[in-house]
Design goal:
Rossmann fold; 2 domains; elongated; single chain; 269 residues; 6-stranded parallel beta sheet; alpha/beta
Length: 269
């Protein structure tokens, strides 16, 4: 199967296109730029989707468009594609609202190597009374079990915590220098004071809607919800890669090829 990747040079889009040319059968601007004719490729893939406007007539085969941003341009060209690809969920929702039937989200990658991220908690381990742990040590335990690197700053004994206590309260300046994010796991707080304290040390904060947390610029997750916290931690530790970008397109093109073969067999049956 052959794919005509219709692309006009642009800084980040150029990298997106370059990665896709690693897939066998993908040709860059097979009909030139701007497109001078309708090619006989099995797939015409416009990166971005607005490039479809340069064709003198509707391209043959399966038409795939990649949509990045620009609401008006999306509204103008989405219906010229059988498959619409979006780089984020918001764009995918817009495409579906407009009427697109086959919408997929494929995120571009990043060149940056994944660095180990250290998450910190700064609180006493005293849970108080009630059916649920007030300080949320159960959330810390689940995070550690899931493989995230957590350390703590606390005046309490090590045995009360599900993660290593690397600093005492009087050494919290060194503690903030040692972590990448402060995580608030409490289910009930008046503050906590560690939120402005971390911000003062230029450490970003991940927090639920307790006390005054959401009155500060924090990364939010749902109160007491491990799945919500896990989504945040996972997004911070596993950014999209170029390998994922390429492999998801490879799978898409293989799916299209399989569909074309099935259609051809039915036509000759």
């Amino acid at each position: 199967m052959t794919v005509n990747l219709v692309f006009k040079g642009h800084w980040i889009l150029e990298r997106l296109a370059k990665e896709l040319t690693k897939i066998p059968g993908v040709e860059l601007n097979a009909s030139g730029w701007p497109p001078r004719s309708v090619t006989k490729h099995d797939v015409t893939y416009c990166l971005p989707g607005k490039n479809i406007r340069h064709f003198p007539a509707q391209p043959n085969g399966v038409r795939v468009g990649f949509f990045t941003h620009g609401t008006e341009r999306t509204r103008a060209y989405w219906d010229r594609f059988q498959i619409c690809l979006a780089m984020n969920k918001r764009m995918a929702s817009l495409l579906r609202e407009l009427g697109a039937k086959d919408v997929r989200v494929i995120r571009p990658g990043t060149d940056q190597p994944i660095q180990p991220i250290v998450f910190g908690v700064n609180a006493r381990s005293v849970e108080g009374r009630g059916p649920k742990p007030r300080k949320g040590l159960d959330l810390v335990a689940k995070a550690v079990q899931a493989g995230y690197h957590f350390v703590g700053c606390s005046p309490d004994p090590q045995s009360a915590w599900p993660c290593p206590i690397t600093h005492k309260t009087d050494g919290r300046e060194d503690f903030y220098r040692s972590i990448d994010y402060l995580v608030v796991t409490s289910r009930d707080e008046g503050g906590p004071m560690v939120v402005p304290e971390a911000i003062a040390h230029r450490v970003p904060v991940i927090a639920p809607d307790v006390g005054w947390c959401w009155e500060f610029p924090v990364i939010r997750y749902e109160h007491g919800d491990w799945r919500s916290l896990n989504r945040v931690l996972k997004a911070l530790t596993t950014p999209p890669s170029w390998e994922e970008w390429t492999e998801q397109h490879r799978a898409l093109f293989a799916e299209i090829e399989s569909t074309l073969l099935i259609s051809a067999k039915r036509g000759t049956g």
